[in-house]
Design a protein that fits this description.
Elements: H1 2-40, H2 44-50, H3 60-67, E1 72-76, E2 79-86, H4 90-97, E3 110-119, E4 122-133, E5 136-149, E6 153-161, E7 165-175, E8 185-195, H5 202-227
Antiparallel strand pairs: 1-2, 2-8, 3-4, 4-5, 5-6, 6-7, 7-8
Helix pairs in contact: 4-5
């Protein structure tokens, strides 16, 4: 009888041991699982940094257009922002953008471009643009003051010419086509405010000027590529 009466106590003891073991196991498993999740899940700042380049921050339609080799032009009434993405080094892009004396050789409708004054990173250039609108040839001259920030930006403003206003800047930003890899591309941004003289129909001027921005940036992209 004694033998049989001790059986339930043994069972209860065994069950208590199993229960304690399972509790410890479950707790330990939860801790291990939490550590695994924490290690495998990137924190938000790191994740954001991977896709926070100058092209990544643009609206999706602009990102896709640039990465497909197209030019993006936005704005109205003389105030425009034009962008193009080129596969080249900053040095190669800079050499083309600052080759003022030869711009007329590859930019459409620019018939003349020359440096009038040069003082280090400050220059004065004169450009002549000629366009055929129906049967009328329209010629415009601009004299611009230039200030260069080496391989980053070129600021300009009108000091004389046939327009009432022309000011803005060219900006260069290195871009990596693969996150966390060295930059192998450059985003070129041309921001401009150009206003016609009182004698020029504003709507016609705005349309012509905006259409020309696409041709200008594509020409610059092609020139950078041709120079290697």
């Amino acid at each position: 009888m004694t033998k049989y009466s001790s059986y339930p106590n043994s069972m209860q003891s065994s069950q208590n041991l199993v229960s304690k073991f399972m509790t410890k196991f479950s707790t330990g498993s939860a801790v291990v699982m939490a550590i695994a999740i924490a290690c495998c899940t990137p924190t938000m700042p790191v994740r954001a940094a991977l896709f926070d380049g100058p092209v990544d921050r643009l609206p999706a339609i602009e990102r896709d257009s640039l990465r497909n080799g197209q030019t993006v032009v936005t704005g109205e009434k003389g105030k425009y922002v034009a962008k193009v993405l080129v596969t080249a080094s900053p040095d190669a892009v800079w050499r083309v953008l600052t080759d003022y004396a030869n711009l007329s050789k590859f930019i459409p409708n620019m018939t003349s471009s020359k440096v009038l004054e040069s003082y280090g990173n400050r220059k004065v250039i004169e450009q002549v643009d000629t366009r055929q609108v129906f049967i009328v040839s329209i010629v415009s001259r601009t004299k611009l003051a230039i200030e260069e920030t080496d391989r980053k930006q070129i600021d300009f403003h009108l000091i004389d010419g046939d327009l009432s206003k022309m000011e803005g800047y060219w900006k260069m930003e290195p871009v990596s086509s693969v996150p966390n890899r060295p930059a192998n591309q450059v985003l070129i941004t041309y921001t401009v405010n150009a206003q016609p003289s009182d004698s020029t129909p504003a709507d016609a001027f705005y349309g012509i000027f905006k259409d020309a921005l696409n041709d200008t940036l594509q020409a610059i992209k092609n020139e950078i590529k041709s120079r290697g």
